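Friendly challenge for the regulars: who can give me the structure tokens for this chain first? No prize, just bragging rights.
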Amino acid sequence: TTFKGHQHQIIGAKELEDGTIVSWSETSLRIWGEKGNCLVVLTQLAPLIRGFNELQDGNIVTWATDETLRIWNRKGECLKILEGHLGAIEGVTVLKNENILSWSNDKTLKMWNKKGECLTTFKGHQHQIIGAKELEDGTIVSWSNDKTMRVWGECAKTVQLFHFTTEFLNVLNAGSNLVINNEDFLLSDLFYGLKPLFSGNQY
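First reply, four minutes later:
Bragging rights claimed.
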């Protein structure tokens, strides 16, 4: 099957829970049928879409360089615009409690509910945040170009702060997966396997 319709370079594609394919370019996001037919085109999108995630209720959240997130239904209708970040949004993950966690080059993370209300802002990083992850117990971990990883506790306070080297920062920026088991922070690298991210340097 060939999927045709985008007018600009395709940035990424992803399969939803029901097997539907979604792809996005800088200016549009398309939902495709199994035969390659375009079911929905999301319009009124901001310039330079960074990505999207599927919410538990089947809706879609997108993020872009205009500092906003947008929640859409499967009909292509924009239900809510989430505003509050002061820089391009770098990533979004959906938490187990159905809240939305976003991070930005404004050095903050924000937690939103499904209604689009900002519940919490996490402050502490000194540079662009490049990734975040929810642990099994619900704890939030984030890492940044300031060469630190922060483990966040209640009231968005940093409860643990780790420093790492430029080498590991480069590997993280290259897209390697961070594997966290209990208190073990390991970096999964395609060529070298699992490597310790920290050597006990905790501050």
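Confidence is low (pLDDT under 50) at residues 199-203. The longest strand covers residues 10-15. Your move, everyone else.
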